[in-house]
TrEMBL record:
It catalyses: [thioredoxin]-dithiol + NADP(+) = [thioredoxin]-disulfide + NADPH + H(+). The keyword Cell membrane does not apply. Keywords: Flavoprotein, Oxidoreductase. This is NAD(P)/FAD-dependent oxidoreductase. InterPro entries: FAD/NAD-bd_sf, FAD/NAD-binding_dom, Ferredoxin-NADP_redctase_2. It comes from the Bacteria. PANTHER family: THIOREDOXIN REDUCTASE 1-RELATED-RELATED. It holds the Pfam family Pyr_redox_2. Residues 2-269 form the FAD/NAD(P)-binding domain.
Length: 294
């Protein structure tokens, strides 16, 4: 039995594992290897790592965890259950792993609106986060898809990076219209039906009325779909500092905080690592003590 099993080896999970390994805890990280920012060539806004390919950050992180004895296993967890004061996690290959504490750092999936050609450009010239991609497309002709009400705010933000921003959407609220106009955002009251690319580059969008508008980058408000099956199975709801309503179960990063960028997810993971170790220390300091609530 490990002290801790971490499900999800992105920035949050590896950061938790690093802190726990350095605290001389036996840690197993199980990772399905599909981090959210995988489609992007570069990661931005992480102090001292700005511009690093996302996969490189994780490769360095894995090596650091392994350097302190942490074990990293490729695989997917499909279920988790309590076993006495610990937890058993079942993997997709049929194996089971057990640990005294469980850290869930499984991230989220960005659901894109069903617009032809959009998915193919995702993470390249179609993005959601201006702080991740805004600088790279500064001063370019940018489109923002009003596929849900958050699109208006996204367009206001994007205007910070370019004077040539067009909002596309047929469902714009009047108060949002006024704000966009005040900020100099052009409004097109048609929905985008197709994303146009040529020579592996975005060139524009096709609208419901059949017209086309040239754009070289698009921003879209995605729907966040948390990879929270394990938490749901255990009835664990996130409370604060990575703790959940189920004693012994912790969570960090995008699975519980969709707005967390890489540096924030990593920080949350580090905090969880310290809280888990503290929890284990208290457990060991009082042998009669069991996980609160059992
Ligand atoms: C296109 C794009 C570009 C981005 N660019 C930036 C950027 O430039 N800068 C920035 O700060 N942020 C960026 N982000 C946000 C960034 O992706 C997240 O902040 C970060 O990935 C969150 O880390 P995490 O550890 O919570 O989740 P993730 O990095 O998504 O890691 C979760 C891991 O858990 C694994 N997993 C999921 N379910 C299971 C399971 N059941 N069993 C085992 N493993 C599982 C996944 O495969 C994955 O490896 C970008 C996001 C996108 C979509």
């Amino acid at each position: 039995m490990h002290d801790v099993v971490v499900i999800g080896g992105g920035a949050a999970g590896l950061s938790a594992a690093l802190v726990l390994g350095r605290a001389r805890r036996s840690v197993l990280v199980v990772d399905a290897g599909e981090p959210r920012n995988q489609p992007a060539a570069h990661m931005h806004g992480f102090l001292s790592r700005d511009g690093m390919p996302p996969g490189e950050l994780l490769a360095v992180g894995r090596a650091e965890v392994a350097g302190y004895g942490g074990e990293i296993r490729s695989g997917r967890a499909v279920s988790a259950r309590r076993n006495g004061t610990g937890f058993v996690v079942e993997l997709a290959d049929g194996n089971e792993v057990s640990a005294r504490r469980l850290v869930v750092t499984t991230g989220l999936r960005d659901e894109l609106p069903p617009i032809e050609g959009l998915r193919e450009r995702w993470g390249r010239d179609v993005a959601a986060c201006p702080y991740c991609h805004g600088w790279e497309v500064r001063d370019q002709p940018i489109g923002v898809l009003g596929t849900d009400p958050r699109g208006a705010h996204l367009a206001l933000l994007i205007r910070q990076w370019s004077a040539d921003v067009t909002y596309f959407g047929s469902q714009l609220a009047e108060q949002d219209r006024a704000k966009l106009l005040a900020r100099g955002v052009r409004i097109v009251d048609e929905d985008v039906v197709k994303v146009l690319a040529d020579n592996d580059e975005l060139i524009g969008v096709e609208l419901t009325d059949g017209s086309c508008v040239k754009r070289s980058a698009l921003f879209v408000p995605t729907v966040f779909s948390a990879n929270d099956t394990l938490l749901t199975q255990l009835g664990a709801e996130h409370t604060e500092d990575g703790r959940t309503t189920v004693p012994g179960v912790y969570a960090a990063g995008n699975v519980v905080d969709p707005m967390a960028q890489v540096i924030i997810a990593a920080a949350q993971g580090a905090k969880v690592g310290m809280n888990v170790n503290s929890d284990l220390v208290l457990d060991e300091a009082a042998p009669e003590r069991r996980v609160h609530g059992l």
